[in-house]
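Repro:
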Amino acid sequence: MKNRFIFLLIISLILTMVAIPAQFGKLKGKILDKILKSKPILTTSLDDATTEVPFLDDYKPSGISPLRKIPIQTPVLHYQSVPGCWSIQLKSYCLHAGKYRPGKGEGYLYAPLKGDWAHIIRSVLKKSVLHPEIPQHLVQSLIWGILARSKISDMPHSIKMVATKLLTPQEILVINGGALGLIPRNLKENALKALPPAVRQVVEAEAAIRDMLKSGIESYEAFERVAVLTGTAPSEKGDREVPDTRWSYHPDGYFVRYQPSGYSRTTLQISVPPVSIVRFDGKGLPVSISDSRGNSLEVEYDDTVQPFTLEKESQPSGYAFRLLRFIQKKPKESGLTKEWSGKGWTLISLPNKKGESSREEQKYYSGLDKDLEWGASHRTQLESLLNQVPLSPLREEIYKRTIRLGCFTHAVENFFQGHSEDEEKEKLAIELLQEAWQHLVRLAMIEHKIARTMGSNTAGPFVGPLRGGPFIGYGSSFVVWNVSSSQEGGEGMDIGGFDLSGDSSVPGKQGNQRLGMGRAADDREVDISEDFSKMWNEYDDGYDQGHSKGWCGGFLDGYYGTSDHLPIPPLVEPEDLWQQGYNDGYDKGYWEGHDAGESMRTGD
């Protein structure tokens, strides 16, 4: 009996020894299966870049100024939204381990952060702005660790300390709960062979980062060697041709261009279009374009030339013009006028189907087929952009006139190719048209927000008359900037200006890294408890902002013959240079706008 018991015990031990490796192998297989089937926690891709603006590829503003901070008491850092073109270099972060660093001359596009943990990555980027004492490489290491699905508790002490400053306890719980395990070495090679090369690079990089963090490695150079590929990224299906001159429209109401230097620095150029007025005649042709700075371009059409009408179209598609008159205003000087005369023509409508024109028309309207093709492409660009906001009669009207202004801008560019008399004035005239185009696009994109803020179904009463009259925008005044919210997931604080941190950009070449935006690269301390009037106290800044607001109020009063906006600036007793500049700018802008509005109302 005793021998039988010993025999059964030995058999049981043998079976157990055989079963344990098999069960352990199944466990390894489950870990690997979970890793390979897990969804990326950040899914932002080129498909999410839906606001690129090819029309502005050749928009090269004549003056670009450093972007200025508005360090008032808020949880985030805002930058001024005064009309103009601005530039700032930010610290940027790689948001895709296992991809190639940005190449020289390769364009990037705005794309919102998306994915289950997008709010966590955004939180890290935003809070890094308020913690300049944290070195950039530690913030980047934390981001790579989160993207690799590593537990915060498994990370080295230095990165754990950063996590406690940039993440909430709840966010840390989410990260720890969604962490992945390590890929068993004996299964890694065979399992990864079946993956597409681009996917395999990312999976391998993230697995290696988890291994290093678990092992206590803190060397940033070691992380970078794994996460950042060098060389030229191979082409992938779905890549887009994106030049480094490409602009994107940002949902906060401005145009932005991203120009990375490697992955750790990105220069942003930001265009906040000035208030513009575009006047159309009864045929729908643009006859004058002007901005709040006093610059204008006037057009004289040639009635002696028959408009061209495509076959099967009832209305003319294009008209000839014979004269362009550009008036440039300079401070304390009378307007400087430049005129160009000659043969030019512009499209006013675009056929849905290709039609034929007479030979007589083709003699004057040279390059017709090419320009019709350009016009159709321009229409497609606008439709793609404006279809992302709610449809309304006002938005549709702005859309139609923006197409006409875009076609006219293209026509003026063609006209100037044969009239190289004054390249500087030609450049300024084109810039005026491009900024007016931006103004109309922005107005169309935020029209629904203005209406919602004003408690109305339409923003029509708040942006001026449309038929036969001007389009009016409010520049940096409260109407525009207080209705635009901050980035997706943000709280949309209505204090003016905009917050750049937490944004992301994606490359046209999908093998390159996507980038996240952090704080300014100059690393100067920002004390957000400082009073606004003490920090932003320069006369010019105040003058620009006051002038923009005063001009808008004055124009409305002049156009409607009312006195709702009295020229009394809110800063009655200025205490510093900024406030003094604001007062002077408001008073000057009000009367300039009033004269312009009254002139338009009376037809003078």
